[in-house]
Specification:
By secondary structure, this protein is of the alpha/beta class. The chain has one domain: Metallo-beta-lactamase, Chain A, CATH 3.60.15.10. The strands form 3 sheets. A 7-stranded mixed β-sheet has the order 6-5-4-3-2-1-15, with helices on one face. The protein has a 6-stranded mixed β-sheet with strand order 7-8-11-12-13-14, covered by helices on one side. Helix 5 crosses helix 6. The longest helix has 11 residues. It is globular, with a radius of gyration of 16 Å. The structure holds nickel (II) ion and manganese (II) ion (MN). Nickel (II) ion binds next to loops.
Length: 226
């Protein structure tokens, strides 16, 4: 399995049978290394409604005839705009041709077009993906929460965790999250995109390493094989 970091919380996961794009945010992302029109995928998984996770979801879904997987409200919203969608909700799992996806809890908010008239987009979620015998957890945007212990049951190969602080948990809480999740490899995300979430991922890696956790920091465009 090949995982490419597209900056912020966006990853391309290439399984044996499908290309999964998570939280597409490229066009307005100052750190993006690929244009939305150049992305090829079969599925798009979206953790919550905020534009830094859904910004390019509709255009990429339409251009690729990809199925957008998200909570019910987000699936209905993009479905009404012409995307092929599959709605779910936290605690629910579904087996797709490439493997199983379960939506998990996340503690955050989930609106779109935030401003005077934000549309509320259901609850924020994390994504638990099982494919090719690997288990991946993309935490979405979230605070640290004790129930992460439940998500780690059964073992995790990779956990993608936000470390940016301000909008999500910061590096200290992300280290505690690793104590609950115990993944084989942790990959930090949701940092450095804007000044408010500037972080030193190497410091997070060191702090996590001191607690016995392995962190793999990916630069935008870098690939991790698992
Ligand atoms: Ni968010
Ligand atoms: Mn975000």
């Amino acid at each position: 399995m090949k995982i490419t970091y597209y900056a912020h919380s966006c990853f391309l996961v290439e399984t044996a049978s499908a290309r999964l794009l998570i939280d597409p945010f490229l066009t307005d992302n100052p750190l993006a290394v690929i244009k939305a029109v150049d992305v090829r995928c079969d599925y798009i998984l979206v953790s919550h409604g905020h534009e830094d996770h859904t910004g390019d979801a509709l255009a990429i879904a339409k251009a690729n005839n990809a199925t957008l997987i998200a909570n019910y409200e987000i699936a209905e919203y993009f479905g009404a705009k012409g995307a092929k969608t599959h709605g779910m909700n936290p605690g629910g799992a579904h087996v797709f041709p490439f493997g199983r996806v379960k939506l998990t809890l996340a503690h955050h908010t989930s609106s779109i077009n935030a401003g005077l008239n934000p549309l509320y987009m259901g609850v924020p979620c994390g994504l638990l993906i099982e494919s090719d015998g690997k288990r991946l957890y993309h935490a979405g945007d979230t605070a640290l929460f004790l129930d992460m212990q439940l998500i780690g049951r059964g073992g995790l190969d990779v956990a993608f965790l936000p470390i940016g602080d301000n909008f999500t948990m910061g590096p200290e809480d992300a280290v505690e999250a690793l104590d609950f999740l115990k993944p084989r490899i942790a990959v930090p995300m949701h940092y450095d995109t804007w000044p408010a979430i500037a972080q030193k991922p190497e410091r997070f890696a060191e702090a996590a390493g001191a607690r016995g956790h392995r962190v793999h920091v990916l630069r935008p465009g870098e690939v991790l094989a698992v």
